[in-house]
Amino acid sequence: MAFLVKVPLNTSCANCRQLDNLFNPSLKLKIERSVSIGFRYRIRNRRRSLIAMAGKQVQSLELGTDVSPKNVELPIMVNGCTGRVGRAVLEAAISAGLHPVPVALGGPDDSGKIVDVDGKQIEIHGPSQRESVLSYAFNEYPNLIVVDYTVPASVNENAELYCKIGVPFVMGTTGGDRELLYKTVTDSKVYAVISPQMGKQVVAFLAAMEIMAEQFPGAFSGYNLQAMESHQVSKLDLSGTAKAVISCFQKLGVSFELEQVQQIRDPKSQVEMMGVPEEHLSGHAFHTYHLTSPDGTVSFEFQHNVCGRSIYAEGTVDAILFLAKKVNSNADKRIYDMIDVLREGNMR
Question: Which end of the chain has the lower number of beta carbons within 10 A, N or C?
């Protein structure tokens, strides 16, 4: 009798058994007999794996019930789920009937942590294991969708990994080199939703701004702009939404640079200047854009305030469902944003 064990490249047999136990928690291990092991490369569905063949002492697996992960309808991996947004996405995804796989990627400080959401436990793996863990997960769950809510410094490196493995992904993390990000995905032909803003209603506002900028260029020429954005102190970079809105104002004729945006991160100022409720200091997004005519007689103000993270989590779930549909239909277009998701018109 020959027993086959799939092992991703750069992953030991011991690690493989550990991952098998994670993906198939109901498996009962039983030593049955000695078999010999030989290794050879096999290419299957663009993913390389090693095949362990018969002949050396190993543990074989006895399946009590059918727990094949291939039966999971839509599995997801939420990288960065130790953070508040990532956890909110997990909660929303589970409520929507999606199935988080039992592993995810995180930073060095997160390695070994267990995230428990609604009774589902997810083990976090650090940077040194990320390629082998993702390869194994994608091999076990061929229809896997990855969601990224990590940190700005990891955006490009993570995208390169997803493209290398060939797994479709939703990039909700802001920052990084966005031009390089798009080039990486374009060259790889991997399906992806990339958006600096996942809140559907805020995206609709952004879409309206883009339409105005395209149809009425220069309409606000000569106007002065004051822009303020307030987020929780843990947000390290300038809001991607602010960047998108300011780009529209620039097309409308406003002279303004991103360096002029007031980034409010001091809790006292957030409460007093921006009106952030104290209970939402740890999670909010308040934006104000104030336009004044050259002579000071006319003013316009655009404002959108978000407390909590549910708006982003729900939008992300819609992006996951949208992307899965595009992958399944083998759509010609590969890179999408949240405006594409809105235009599809089948959000929950």
Answer: N
Q: What is the 3-state secondary structure (H, E, C) of 113-149?
A: CEEEECCEEEEEECHHHHHHHHHHHHHHCCCCEEEEC
Residue 183 is encoded by which pair of tokens? 């080039």
Into how many domains does the chain fold? 3
Range of the domain at 322: 70-194+313-344
What are the respective helix, strand and coil percentages of the chain, to the nearest 5?
A: 40, 25, 35
DSSP state of 278: G
Please tell me whether the overall predicted TM-score, pTM, comes out greater than 0.85 for this model. Answer: no
Same domain membership, residue 117 and residue 27: no
Please tell me whether residues 36 and 84 are part of one structural domain.
Answer: no
20 and 168 housed in the same domain: no
The candidate with the shortest Cα–Cα distance to 324, out of 182, 137, 142, is 142
Per-10-residue mean pLDDT, the chain, length 348 = 39 50 46 29 33 30 35 85 95 96 96 94 95 97 97 96 98 94 97 93 94 97 97 89 95 97 96 96 96 98 95 96 97 96 80
Are 322 and 344 in contact, with CB atoms under 8 Å apart?
yes
- Looking at the structure, tell me whether residues 160 and 45 fall in a common domain: no
User: What pLDDT is stored for residue 15 in this prediction?
Assistant: 52
104 lies in the same domain as 189: yes
pLDDT of residue 2: 39
**C-alpha distances in Å from residue 204, one per residue of 170, 191, 197, 249:** 18, 23, 10, 16
Please state, as a whole number, how many other Cβ atoms lie within 10 Å of the Cβ of residue 285: 25
List the structure tokens of 226: 């004051």
Same domain, 205 and 302: yes
pLDDT of residue 196: 82
CA distance 322 to 167: 15
Could you list the active site residues?
231, 235
Q: How far apart are CA 249 and CA 225, in angstroms?
A: 9
For residue 323, give both structure tokens.
């992307």
Q: Is the domain of 86 the same as that of 134?
A: yes
CATH number at 336 reads 3.40.50.720
> Of 38, 67, 96, which residue is a domain's last?
67
Position of tokens 């796989």?
101
